[in-house]
TrEMBL record:
Reaction catalyzed: (8S)-3',8-cyclo-7,8-dihydroguanosine 5'-triphosphate = cyclic pyranopterin phosphate + diphosphate
Residues engaged in binding substrate: L77, C78, H79, M113, E114
Organism: Acetobacter okinawensis
Lineage of source species: Bacteria, Pseudomonadati, Pseudomonadota, Alphaproteobacteria, Acetobacterales
Description of how the protein assembles with itself and partners: Homohexamer; trimer of dimers.
Membership in a protein family: Belongs to the MoaC family.
Protein name according to UniProt: Cyclic pyranopterin monophosphate synthase
Class of this enzyme: lyase
EC number from the UniProt entry: 4.6.1.17
Length: 158
């Protein structure tokens, strides 16, 4: 395997998609998280299923899964991947909903972007479905929590 640097720049300094053809296909996993903070009364409407626009949690979950599958279409220079699983979990507590996306693949590059895209789309869907009730919602702390597989090994946020 040649050890070319993995970069989005070609020899002329122009943007390009990284060539991963020399990388081995291995099992890769990424977990990303985000928080959506809101007024407690908004959270109560969501949890009770009383939000005027319907089942907010189910819709946000589906939006996250769909976004992970379309990441290469919306993030420039991102590789299209064969995802083996996408799970989006939403947990309500106090004044927020914590979103966790877990994405796996057996491919030549990682799924960090897919996991981050999934939590972002789920968070934006929550906001969109609830903005008529609470325009002050805040999407915070979108971040990678865990990554495994590939050349760079394992990462766990502290």
């Amino acid at each position: 395997m040649s050890e070319q640097p993995l970069t989005h720049l070609d020899s002329s300094g122009h943007a390009r998609m990284v060539d991963v053809s020399d990388k081995d296909e291995t099992f890769r996993k990424a977990v990303a998280v985000a928080d959506v903070h809101m007024h407690p009364s908004t959270l109560e409407l969501i949890v009770s299923g009383s939000m005027p626009k319907g089942d907010v949690l189910a819709t946000a979950r589906i939006a996250g899964i769909m976004a992970a599958k379309k990441t290469a279409d919306i993030i420039p220079l991102c590789h299209p991947l064969r995802l083996t699983s996408v799970a989006v979990d939403l947990v309500a507590s106090d004044d927020k909903i914590e979103i966790t996306a877990t994405v796996t693949t057996k491919d030549a590059t990682g799924v960090e972007m897919e996991a981050l895209t999934a939590v972002s789309a789920a968070a934006l869907t929550l906001y969109d479905m609830c903005k008529a009730v609470d325009r002050g919602m805040r999407i915070n702390n979108t971040r990678l929590r865990h990554k495994s597989g590939g050349r760079s090994g394992e990462y766990n946020a502290t």
